[in-house]
Write a structure and sequence with these properties.
40% strand, globular, 146 residues, alpha+beta
Length: 146
Amino acid sequence: MMILPMNETHVSQVAALEALCFRDPWSEKSVASELTNKLSLWLVAEEDGAVVGYVGSQTVLDETDMMNVAVHPDHRRRGIARSLVAALVDALKEKGSRCLTLEVRESNESAIALYRELDFRQIGLRKNYYRNPRENALILRKEWVI
């Protein structure tokens, strides 16, 4: 597996993975627009030319928000999400960001456990943040010294 910056050849696969993994997926056009957004950094995990996972983020000044992370169901429980988030943090440090913030469904215990292992801490709660179904989001943040 290789972790690479997302490029044009990855967009359709990332959009397909979005549709497979999320109830309210980003469109292919929205994913493609991230390639020209100067605030964005998206990484893909690629195996044998296929995108098996990705993570997307946007940075304003020195703070970054993680937009989405997903791993294809056939490739889960292999450390791909962990590798993607770790690679993102390393890249963000190099770019001068000092923290990474994300929202996660309150019921997503496996993701919450992963983020806690990666030293994310809960800093808040967004009531009814998600729809389909309606659910609260935990706001998690990881900070570092640059």
